[in-house]
Every structure is written in C-alpha cells, then in structure tokens.
Amino acid sequence: MSQVWNFSAGPAALPPPVLERAQRELLDWNGSGASVMEQSHRGKRFIAMAERVEADLRELLAIPADYAVLFLQGGATQHFAQIPMNLAGEGDSADYVVNGHWGAKAAGEAAPYVRVNVAASSQADNYLRLPPRESWQLDPRAAYVHYTPNETIHGVEYHDVPVVGDVPLVADMSSNILSEPLDVSRFGLIYAGAQKNIGPSGLVLMIVRRDLLERSSRPMARIFRYAEHAAAASMLNTPNTWGWYLAGLTFEWLKEQGGVAAMGERNRAKAEKLYAAIDGSGGYYRNPVDPAARSRMNVPFTLHDSALDADFLKESEAAGLMALKGHKALGGMRASLYNAVPLAAVDALVAFMGDFARRHG
Amino acid sequence: MSQVWNFSAGPAALPPPVLERAQRELLDWNGSGASVMEQSHRGKRFIAMAERVEADLRELLAIPADYAVLFLQGGATQHFAQIPMNLAGEGDSADYVVNGHWGAKAAGEAAPYVRVNVAASSQADNYLRLPPRESWQLDPRAAYVHYTPNETIHGVEYHDVPVVGDVPLVADMSSNILSEPLDVSRFGLIYAGAQKNIGPSGLVLMIVRRDLLERSSRPMARIFRYAEHAAAASMLNTPNTWGWYLAGLTFEWLKEQGGVAAMGERNRAKAEKLYAAIDGSGGYYRNPVDPAARSRMNVPFTLHDSALDADFLKESEAAGLMALKGHKALGGMRASLYNAVPLAAVDALVAFMGDFARRHG
C-alpha cells in the first residue's frame, strides 16, 4: 500500500513501530507460545508485563509515589459518572469548568451523583475561547474542580494548569495526555481514554492521589470503587489485557523518542506549521479558535467556501490523507496531531492544502 | 516454536485462524491503509463491520428480532451491578440462584441496587452440585431471576434451561456462550465477558429483550443505561473496537465450523474424553463434581496425592500443555475446553496424564 497519514480524532493513529511489534508478537508473545490475548491476567508473564508498563508510565510522567495508577475500562464517559461517585459524598457539590463538548458531557453525566456547579463556561462563545481564570466562580467547599485541558471537538487547549487552591483538580486528559511534560502533583485526579495518545480504545488510564480514594462512603458495587481497583492493582476483574499491552508498547516507544519533553517539542512544531499554513492562506482556510487557546492536538479548520468541502475530503483521501472530516459541531475539517502523527504527515497535509487552494482557486 | 495447547480459564485460547487473520490485517485493515485499531468507530468502514458482526451473531444464535445485541465494556463483574440498576426499580427484589463463585459475586455486587433474595444455593455442597430446581424459592414478584449456567471455577453446568415462569431469566454465560445451541427466547437477558468463547478481554456481549430496557426509572448516568446503548447501536461512547473486530472474526470462524450445533457436538466429545480419562484412572485423578452437573467447559481435577501437583504442572508445561493450574478454591488442576481448544489438545492432555501416572506411580 502507499503511504497513508491518519488524522483521526480517535481511535487514532498508533506509532508504526508499536503496530509492527504487536504484529510480530501476535501469535507468540514473550516466548509463551500463545498470544498476549490468550494469557491469564493472573499469570506470571502478564503480571510482570503489567508492572513494567506502570513503571514506564511513572517514569515518563514522573508520577509521585502518593499517586495510584489505574488501568480501567468504560471510556472517559463512564468515569464522568464514576468520579463523582468516588470523590464526592452524598450532598456534596463539585465545580465544573465547561470549555467544550466533553466538559459539558462530563457535567451532565455527573449530575445524578453530585450537585454540579458550573463554575465557568465558554458556551456563549461557542467554546471557541477559554473562560478566563478570573471569571471562574469556584466554591472552596467543592469536592473537586473538573475541567478538560484539551477539547477534541472544539480544538481549544489550556497552556497552563489553572491554580484552584486546595480543592482537588480533576482533569480529563483523553486527548492530550503524554503530549508534553506534566506536573502531576498539581492534580488530584487525571484520567484519559486510551484511544488518542496511548493505545486502542476500551482502556482508561487514571492517575489519582491516594488520599482521595477513600473519600466516598456511599453504597455502591465494589467494581465501581477506585479504592478497590487500586488495592487489586487494576485486576479486581479481568482487565483489557490487549489494551494494557499496547499501552506498554507505546510507553516504550515514547521513552525511545526522548520522552514527553521531546514529544512536547515535536507537537508544538507540528501545530505551529499547520496553523501557519491556515493563517497564511489569505483566508482560504480558517481556524475559528482564539489564538491564545488553540489546541496542539486537534486543529479544526474550514474552507472559505463550504461547497468545496466534499471535494477537499475526496481529494485528500485519494492523496493518502485519512479522516480529515470535521465534527458536525464546527463543520469543515479537523486534523488531529497526536503523538503518533509525525511532522511528515503535517508536511503532506500542508502541501496538499496549498495545492488544493491553487487548483480550486 | 513447538505446539502449545492452552487450557487457560480466561483470557483463553483463540482460534488459530482468527489470530492469523488478525496478524495479517494488523497494519492494513480492509484496504484502509491503517490498522483496525486506528479507525474511527463512526467511520463507514467500522460501522459496516460492526453491523456485520451483529448479523453474524444473530444468525449463529438465531436471536429473535425483539432482542437487542449490545457490545459493552467493564467485564461481567460491572454488569453484576448494572443489571439490577437497569432491570429493577427502587425497592424491587430479585432472585439469585447461587451455584458457584461467580453467582455469589453477582449477588454481592447487585446488593446495593436491589433487594437480593438468594432463592437457592449450593454453597453447603461447596458448589460441587447444582441446587435442584424443586428447591428454588422463587418469588413471582421478583424483578428477575439470575443464575450462572456454567461456573468457571467450580466446573458445574446446567444442561437444561430452568423453567421460572414469567419472571425474566438473566444468565451470566461468560464461560459457555456459543458452546452449543441456545434458545434465546427462554431468557430475558444473557451476558458474557468475551475472554472465554468470543475474543479478547475488555468486551462484554449482551443479548436483552427490548421490553426490559425501559424498566428502571431511577436516576443514573446515561452511560449506565442499557436503553441508551441500544438506541446508539453500542456507540454511545467509543466502544472497544479491537474486541468487537476480534469477536467478528471468531463469529466468522464459528460459521465456517458449522455453527453452534457443530461446536456443541465437539465440546461434548472433548469433555467426555477428559472425564473418561479421569474416571478411568483408578483414582489417580479425580473430578469432585456431581456427574450430572459436570461442566463441558471447565474440568477441575485433583491428583491422588497433592504432593505431586508441582511436578504435574512443571512437566505438563514442558510438554506444551499451558495453564493447567487449578483455582485455589478447589486446588489441583483445571482444564478449560472452550470452543477454540480442539480435540487434539484433549488427546495430548489425556496422553500426558496417562504417562505421568505411569511414571510417578
């Protein structure tokens, strides 16, 4: 096949060396004579791998010892509900800063379990800018403050961690985890669906300060309690073993690439190149987001005439540029530039965009 | 590598042609130029595949049109809790027939959400027989009756579907789904973790009568509501796309093998051969289960002298017989004989057992 560059928002591109290794090992993993998918999660081989994967992640993000790392299921959406179940007592309130589709969804799914206080929202701006920190109406008695550091659909991203005092800060980092260095100690809980910067879908990574695990005494099944998952090293029940394995291959690849510092530089260079092409197109292409809030991970853009959208999609796909169709909330196109998307993919996209503009005037 | 036979209780052996195809297609699925793991679940290619997988399952089990098929996450354990959330109103009770470890766990996880009535239990028999149907104390007003048709740890299995009147029958078929023909219309809800007879872990298959989907009006997050998953064709949020794909390859393989009728015959022959070897060993090997309740899927057995267990495990592994260590509840050994384990694997195990008995007297 000819070269394909995958700009999918998720499930998204994985690093080619990760896929190639998964392919090589698929029938005979680790000398076992069987696939990694056929291994008991309670077996010595799998447990040794699982521990190594956690250690690699701890090294990549310099995760302090008082934080637990969990490998869970259900997608970030399930944890929109499970986080208040675990972090808030009955009658508690929690602050939600809503700066895009996913933040709004997180608040909605939390509502049956906690009094949701929308402390700030940029909905009136169609989520194309961030609510300024000084406008946030935080409640110092809130169980936690939830926000979405990068919004996949609207293409907005915080470039600093907001200061929220002593209330634990909870962040849905599904679309920007591991894309740059991170000071984990600033957060109470970080969670991320794996299918953008980590591995295949069906796995959720969580990093949580251990003292928060015992907060809720409300009745619930053990399977919903993060403290139980932590005590069982994420093997309270059978985990997504393939996802865990793939995440581990990605973490090894990240270490070989120079870690999150190197990825941060690459991701900045990729985004700058694409935004420069959009901004330098004389209005042919346009990104609607406040420049101060532009995402490095997800770049939505429109054509000056939406009647050209269908041609753009057809021709870009024929040129090996995959999954550029934008979300219906913004229309037009979206290029997602996660860790596994190399600068060469952005170069190819930028070249195609210039060529398309010349040909379609 | 030399031939390895995998008797793991789960995650368990997958059919070699399924693994080989997954390996071939891993870098370039369906002519897309990218892996199936890198496809958007909202893309045309993935949706077409997902629909075909459901159609194949409907054909294999002759699922009536008034049943929804769901592809979920969280393992069967999460659904121990989610089933009462969805099928019982506040204050309702549900009947649990407990005939092994997993049935007891299902009742425990349900307790925060429904009044659990243990209608029958074989705990006093250490779960080595089934509670006779005439002993079940069923409540005709119960929201549902829950049981576990095959218990993976204790190796007991129902060989008929119990008659329970008009109350919906709910079955955890994690370890015997698709192992023989099934009359779906006898059940209100069937669910199964994928990692035994379907595919990799991290996927749960559910077959549920549509009229049961709207039963519960209690407050809960949308993500926990089966009706929402059904309305969204299991794409309420990003599903486990790799698991769904692998399940589809398994279903295709099952159809090529002659479907569940052919598997039922094979599974009976495999189990009969192993039980015959155990029963014919003059007491060297022993299966502790009531012969009328013996499982075709999971065969626990002990050696006449447990001091030989370590040698048996070491030598069997060296002979390419993998994962025979029994669960600590029963000790000794356990051979799981799911669909993907061929008769040749049982032949190899029986030959090894005979040889071991001769050598170790």
CATH architecture classification of the largest domain in chain A: 3-Layer(aba) Sandwich
User: Could you give the count of β-strands of chain A?
Assistant: 14
Order of adjacent strands in the largest pleated sheet of chain A? 2-10-9-8-5-3-4
- What characteristic shape of chain A results from the CA principal axes? globular
Number of helices of chain A: 9
> What class would the helix/strand composition of chain A place it in?
alpha/beta
Q: Topology as H/E string of chain A?
A: EHHEHEHEEEEEEEHHHEEHEEH
Major β-sheet of chain A, in short?
A: 7 strands, mixed
Helix content of chain A: 25-40%
Per the CATH scheme, the topology name of the largest domain in chain A is Aspartate Aminotransferase, domain 2
Break the fold down into its secondary structure elements and pairings.
Two copies of one chain form a homodimer.
Chain A (H helix, E strand, L loop, with lengths): L4 E2 L9 H10 L18 H18 L5 E6 L2 H13 L5 E6 L2 H10 L4 E7 L23 E3 L2 E2 L4 E2 L11 E4 L16 E5 L10 E6 L16 H6 L9 H16 L2 H21 L5 E2 L11 E6 L5 H10 L2 E2 L10 E4 L6 H18 L1
Parallel strand pairs in A: 1-13, 3-4, 3-5, 5-8, 8-9
Antiparallel strand pairs in A: 2-10, 6-7, 9-10, 11-12, 12-14
